[in-house]
Amino acid sequence: MGWLQLFGFMCTAGISITQIESYMLNDNPNGTIINTTKGFTYNTNYDSKYYSPNYNTNFNTNRNPNYNSNFKTNYNPTSITNYGNSGNINYNNSGTYGGYYSYGTLDELECPEYWFHFQKSCYRFIRSPLKSYLDARKLCQAYSPETGGSDLVSIGSTEEHGFLINQLNKLDPQHRRWYIGAHQQSASYYTNPDGTQFVSAENSILAVDLPYGKDYLAYNFSRTLLRWSFEPVSGAELLLYICEANIGAVQRLVSQGRDYKYGVDVEDPQRIPRGPYFIKQPTDAIFDTSKRKLYNDITISCLASGYPTPTYKWYKEDYENDRLVAHEIDPLQDSRYTVSGGTFIIHNPQQKLDHATYHCKATNKYGTIISESVQLNFGFILEFVLKRSPESGDLNWGKAVYCDPPNHFPSVKYSWSRDYFPNFVEEDARVFVSHDGALYFSALETIDRANYSCSVSSEFSDSGRNGPFFPLRVNPH
Length: 477
Fold this sequence. Notes:
Blueprint: H1 3-16, E1 32-34, E2 41-43, E3 66-68, E4 73-75, E5 81-83, E6 89-91, E7 116-118, E8 121-131, H2 133-141, E9 150-152, H3 158-171, E10 178-186, E11 189-191, E12 216-222, E13 227-233, E14 239-246, E15 274-280, E16 285-288, E17 297-301, E18 303-307, E19 311-320, E20 323-328, E21 337-340, E22 343-347, H4 351-354, E23 357-364, E24 367-370, E25 374-381, E26 391-394, E27 399-401, E28 408-409, E29 412-418, E30 431-433, E31 439-441, E32 450-458, E33 464-466, E34 470-475
């Protein structure tokens, strides 16, 4: 190169590095910045509708980035990141789908609720309602209509196939059929919705004699092979389906954690308008009939919060013509009933009238909630038979002595006494009481000769019954 050419190049470079003062950035109608170090010209994609003056210095190292006004971000399909002086990173996926909204780096992104994360994609398994192939595609695409970043699942690797099978094993014990996105183009050749070739494991497509027109694939569990495989289907069948979305394309679906306090300027959180919600659900209750003389009422309660404070109603559930019907409890119609807040009290409960299922309802101006149904039962232990015949066994032989308890509800605990109550039988490796109340001797000895009595006690109260004493005879050889 001659010295004249070199001089001309230096003059040209000297013109290109003319510095623009910082205050001129906002006045630059073309949004162009001259880099005083490298001599490169950068397009800032400046548009006053989308950027405040503080962000006019965003730059992209690619000389001709494309601005996409639909997404309000600097989208460049050939560049991984667009850097701004605020530290924000606009991630542009170079994989299956196009650009999408900016929510941070790939490692920071999370899948929305009910979606499952694998590599750069999120997957959702839709179980209801059942759809045809075309309808399933439309619904999957609706998760990210602006960017086209979602569709029926495209299986591009055996690792992805293995991930989907693991999820199906967890989510679908009934082994139903699930649409995927694969579509047959020619014999034994399928393509995915993203245009890539469908990847399947060896012998993973079920070889069955099917009529013409089965151009789509669905996951199906083979009863003979005992594994998930792909079954050709026509696409008209109503099946479950699997959606796949680029993890960035569905970031707008990620919950921002806004609870009932969002947007409400109230100092006292207890006065924030809110529908009712249960703090305490009612639980099953048992009335001890043996204690009726001590206390003759039973209480069931629920507790709800919300603002305004909820009001309560209690309902009794009955069957009418094989249909469960709830009837409101009205204390004015039956003086035995009392409803105070979320507490329901029955005075002098009667088994024929009150043995039933109940639930409570809490209501304020923002809604109504219904509690779980609970059962009101009546506990009792009847009397033992007053006299019992003797028991006998052979020395050094095993022996089982049964309790023969009276009728009772609910379950009871068993104990055995020797000669007098409460001289309880000591259990060891040779003598023990089983769960059903029988007294077992693995080998009778002469010291086992005595009078025995079985006792039962309720598991829900301190009431119980003692059985009659009877002799146990040990016969020598």
